[in-house]
Every structure is written in structure tokens, then in C-alpha cells.
Amino acid sequence: EATTTDNKAETSNVTHELGGCGSSSESDLVHELSIEVSYEDTYDTLIFLGVSFIFGEIAYHCGIPPLVGQIIAGFLLGPPLANYVPFPEAMVLLGDLGLI
Fold first, then answer.
1. For the residues 27-52, what does the mean pLDDT come to?
2. CA 7 to CA 10: how far, in whole Å?
3. DSSP readout, 3-63?
């Protein structure tokens, strides 16, 4: 029994020294960086991006640049009218990345 207790203590020390699973600061960081996403949120995001794509295609077939159709979709689905924007901060980030 003494050997088993010594092995557990040694494993615990090694895990703590290496910053392993037992580390509370690592656990806090994981919880801080993770978000809970439900199926409905994912579905709403796909609908939003799909409608934006479809509006871009419609604009293209009308002889207008697709970006204009996507802007119109964003206006119709966004806060001014429908307020149907899942994860607005993420959508702003995607928009900023698109400008680069």
C-alpha cells in the first residue's frame, strides 16, 4: 500500500510540474476560451450565411456585383430590420477578415 501511495504522489507531482490535466490554471483557461454552442445556434449561423450567399448569387445574375447582394442580405437580416444575426461578434470578425 505504501508503494501505491508513493506512486500516486509522484504522478501528481509530475502532472503538476508539467502543467497537466490537474492544473487549475489550465482548466480556467480552457473554460475561458470555450463557448457553448447549441444545434439551433449552428443552424441559425448556416441559415444566415446561406441567405447571404443566395442574395449574392441573385445579384450576380442580375448583373450587379455579388457583394451588393450580400450587403442587402446583411441589411435585411441585421439589426435594422429582422435582427437575425447569430453571434454578432463573430460575424463582425468574419467581415473584418473578409476586408483583408
1. 77
2. 5
3. HHHHHHHHHHHHHHHHT-TT-HHHHHHHHHH-----HHHHHHHHHHHHHHHHHHHHHHHTT
